[in-house]
Structure formats: C-alpha cells, structure tokens
Amino acid sequence: MIPILYEDRHIVVVDKPAGLASIPERDRSIDCVMSLMERQLRRKLLIVHRLDKDASGILLYAKNPESHRYMNKLFTDRLIEKTYGAVVHGIIAEEEGTIEAPIRVYGSGRMGVDEVRGKPSRTDFKVIKRLADHTFIEAYPITGRRHQIRVHCYYKGHPIVGDALYGDKNLQKNYPRLLLHARRLVFTGLNGKRTEVASRLPKEFLPIVS
Fold first, then answer.
1. Out of 67, 91, 118, 207, which could bridge 10 as a Cys pair, Cβ 3.0 to 4.6 Å?
2. CATH H-level superfamily of 4-199
3. Could you say which of 8, 27, 31, 52 is catalytic?
4. In the annotation, is 52 catalytic?
5. pTM to 2 decimals?
C-alpha cells in the first residue's frame, strides 16, 4: 500500500516511493502511484502535480474537479511552498543561494539550460550539511519545470547523487537511486485551512546524511 500522509474530502497526499511513475506511462498495464491509489481508495483521482519517476516523497491528487481546479491554480500562482531534500556531488561553498537558468526540452528524456530558448526557471537552495564528498541541501523550486532541480544542480556543477540522466554515468551507477525527495508541502486548502505535510527521508539517504 502507498502511505497516505494527509487526506480530506477534497484531496489525498501520499508518500511516493522511488521507481514508480506518478501517472500512467505508455504501457497502461504497468502500475503507477495513481492507479494503485485509485484501487486503494476505490475512487477516481485527478493529477495535480508530478514527481519524477526516480524521485520520492510528497505527491498530491485531487478527488473531484473543483479541488483539481483549485489546487492547480495554487501551483500555477506559486502559492504552494515546496521543499525538496537532495544529496549532490561535491561541496557547495555558499550557505544558500538562487539558481536562475532557463530550461528547455533537449530530447531523449533530458532537459537542459538554454539562455535563448529556455523557459524562465528559478530554484532557491540552502546547505543543510557538508560531508566528505557530498552536500546535503534543501531545494525550493519557485517555478515548476520538468527535472528543474536536477538540471539546476547539474548546471551548478553539483549533480544530484544517483542521477542517471545528469552527471558522470560511471560515477552515478554506483548509487542505488536518485537522492531527491519531496519532503514538505504547505498550502491553504479548499477547506480554508493552512495545511503542512511532511515526509521523512528514505533509508537510502541515511548512510550519507546521518
């Protein structure tokens, strides 16, 4: 069963495991988080936002068209606070900062920075812990481009640990998974209540960050 972190009559927020797609892929016979949750709750759900297949953490679905429109608008208007935990290669010198670099589709599932044709993209970050060869950061995506945090970390020279698309493939294959986790979401729901949802770091992070 997929763990439920928060639920009301409008939405359900779940703890997505790594390696499972948020929504159906081309082969509809392969389960995704959405199909598993629809069976688990015995009702149809509507996707509001997505997490990369290889990432884990907080994922929100709407239960009806009204909440779907409302939550989508919150994301579009940037009225939702999103916090991700990521372990990156190398040591980031500054305590915090902002990466503003436009992103576009490059093909083969990859995104990349393009100063001319890319869409405006911004990620704020803060260093949580420095280790021998890695840095554990919190990332706060202000815009919501596909692979945004992954691309921005790679662009900065600190690809996320275990990222098969961005970084040295020979190095990345030594890690069991992408160390990117959606760990906090804060929003005012359709019920008018300020809601904060949190997810603990998965066990794969612990040997590095603990």
1. 67
2. Pseudouridine synthase (3.30.2350.10)
3. 52
4. yes
5. 0.94
